[in-house]
Design goal:
Structural class: alpha/beta
Order of helices and strands: HEHEHEHEEHEHEHEHEHEHEEEEEH
Distance between the termini: 61 Å
Shape: globular
Strand order of the largest sheet: 2-1-3-4-5-12-11
Strand content: 15-25%
Number of strands: 15
Length: about 350
């Protein structure tokens, strides 16, 4: 290539670079405020997938790059992912910590906090002894969710009695199908459920950890029904509606009729409102996965702007028409969980969305 041609080539490259820079400036392309990294479970779980969808959309709106490092609900894998991230030497502006096993994951949580990067607990309530390892919590309140489910179960019992059904014990017999053993959301929901039903006379015939989906609910439900049917089953409490869906199928297979001679409550909606609409499920909680993702990213973004946390807990209002802005970050920041029944499933709205939009995925 001649010297003249080389000079023309360099001039052309320089002109293109300047033009690109001008386009970038004139287009108003926003500069990223930094990267947020969330460690959490696999998006093959449809609730988790919806939560991540809301989180990604909000991160984009807020101007953050969001990286989600997934594991298949295996704490040891999540621990390894934390070590790899810390070894990289790259620091995000914030971490989101969603442990598969809250207690077993304390070491990783501590390591993240000691990196100097603020750590937000998300979805799983922090446990005692970890107070120094997280800045704030944002997400669901599973103790409250369990309490709401307990209240719904008491209403279900009243409806059962009003229909002429004779309970198999003075307060009614219930079986409980829960989340996997070690998953703290299940422990928290059981705690709230027992608070709501204390003194009610309800008798728990049996409770078993299962999983998250209808297949797990059907498997464990079938086992519990076979073991306890002779004592008489009046009520069912499942930690979410997906599990409840499976238990309802198991009840039908055992010759029972959910909604008539047995009432079932799913702790929170999860993917399918069919049984609720049909009256096979008495009630569920409107814990909106997508809105949880939105809310936790809004809380993280507000903290990164202000670097301030107010002591105490705050539950966002269950308004119907719009997502409430996070103006102040509290130590605990909760999304609402209004009860949903067949009677209001097509009427109730939360933050501008219908039950069908939030609970069907």
């Amino acid at each position: 290539m001649s010297g003249r041609a080389l000079r023309f080539g360099l001039v052309a490259i320089l002109a293109a670079a300047v033009a690109a820079a001008i386009v970038g400036i004139s287009s108003g392309a926003p500069k990223s405020k930094g990267q947020i990294i969330i460690f959490g479970p696999t998006s093959s779980n449809n609730y988790v997938a919806q939560l991540y969808k809301g989180a990604r959309a909000t991160a984009k709106t807020e101007g953050y790059d969001l990286k989600i490092i997934e594991n298949n609900f295996v704490q040891s894998d999540e621990d390894n992912q934390v070590q790899q991230q810390l070894a990289s030497g790259k620091k995000p502006v914030a971490y989101g910590w969603w442990p598969s096993d809250n207690k077993a994951g304390i070491g990783s949580q501590r390591a993240l906090a000691q990196s100097g990067v603020p750590v937000f607990m998300v979805n799983q309530l922090p446990i005692k002894g970890t107070e120094k390892y997280w800045v704030a919590y944002a997400g669901v309140n599973d103790v409250f969710n369990g309490f709401v489910a307990g209240q719904m179960l008491l209403k279900a019992r009243a409806a059962l009695k009003a229909s002429g059904h004779k309970l198999h014990s003075p307060g009614g017999n219930v079986i409980v199908v829960g989340f996997p053993a070690g998953y703290s959301a299940g422990t928290d929901r059981d705690k709230g459920f027992k608070q709501a039903t204390k003194g009610s006379g309800i008798k728990i015939l049996g409770e078993q950890p299962a999983g998250f989906d209808p297949a797990a609910g059907f498997k464990i439900g079938t086992q519990l029904i076979a073991a306890k049917k002779s004592q008489g089953i009046d009520l069912v409490y499942a930690h979410n509606s997906a599990l409840d869906d499976g238990v309802i199928q198991a009840l039908q297979q055992a010759g029972l009729t959910p909604g008539k001679d047995v009432m079932a409550v799913g702790g929170t909606c999860h993917g399918n409102i069919g049984p609720l609409v049909k009256g096979q499920e008495f009630g569920t909680g409107l814990q909106a996965a997508r809105l949880e993702g939105v809310y936790m990213l809004e809380a993280m973004g507000r903290y990164l702007q202000t670097k301030k946390v107010v002591p105490g807990a705050f539950q966002a209002p269950a308004i119907t028409n719009k997502i409430p802005p996070v103006t102040v970050v509290h130590r605990y920041n909760f999304i609402p969980n209004p009860p949903v029944y067949k009677s209001n499933v097509n009427k109730i709205k939360l933050w501008g969305y219908s039950v069908k939009q939030l609970c069907t995925y």
